[in-house]
Amino acid sequence: MKVALLVIDIQNRFFNVSQVCTDSLKSAVEYVNEAISLFRKKGFPIVVVQHQNEKTGLVPGKADFDVHESVQV
Length: 73
Description:
By secondary structure, the chain is of the alpha+beta class. It has one domain (about 5-60). About 35% of the residues lie in helices and about 10% in strands. The protein has a two-stranded parallel sheet.
């Protein structure tokens, strides 16, 4: 069996939805970063997925689309 870490939708846009959402994401990022560190040490792949939605402007090249700076990718 092969393992990989999948990091999904930890993007700038979602840190601006509400304070509750922001607080939840900040808490989750601590665990995500620990997992990223572990997977790097073990040499396992890390896959980062970013949500895209042209209707809402969540597209590559826009700041909201980028992975949040707190995520250590």
